[in-house]
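Possible regression after last week's pipeline update?

I re-ran a chain I had predicted before the update to compare outputs. Posting the input and the new output here so someone can diff against the archived version. Not blocking, just want to make sure nothing changed silently.
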Amino acid sequence: ILRYIGQALDPSGTLYPADPMVASLVDGIMDQCSDMMIGRKVYKYKQRFGFPESVFTEEVTRTVETCWKEEVLPCHLGFFARCIAASPTGWIAGTPTATVADILLAAILKNDVSKVGPLPNALAAWVDAVYSLPAVKAWKEAEAAA
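New output (post-update):
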């Protein structure tokens, strides 16, 4: 959906890059966002994923939640932090401007992951930078006014 939005609503080709090589990197980063959250979604929404309470017991849920918080999530956060640190522009895909991958990752980190525990300082600062973009600020203001 974000690919479509970026292509259809941004004729400049910056939200979703027109260059296929850069676009594939943006797609990969968005997939990594999904990978980061899938474990949490499974233990929070067991039956949506086909796990009845008889299989995904409270004990199993606690075990999976602990593994996600202590092992899986830090691995993904480290990956994203390294991508941002290596970026010549500060945007996750090294693009001149923010893409849909930046917006997606920042939203997940701010609205979901940060509720699990504090973000590493570099990622927290990056999320603040994304939310400081004029278009994002305008959107958030319009959302609050609605």
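Follow-up from reviewer: compared with the archived run. The first helix runs from residue 2 to 9. Marking as no regression found.
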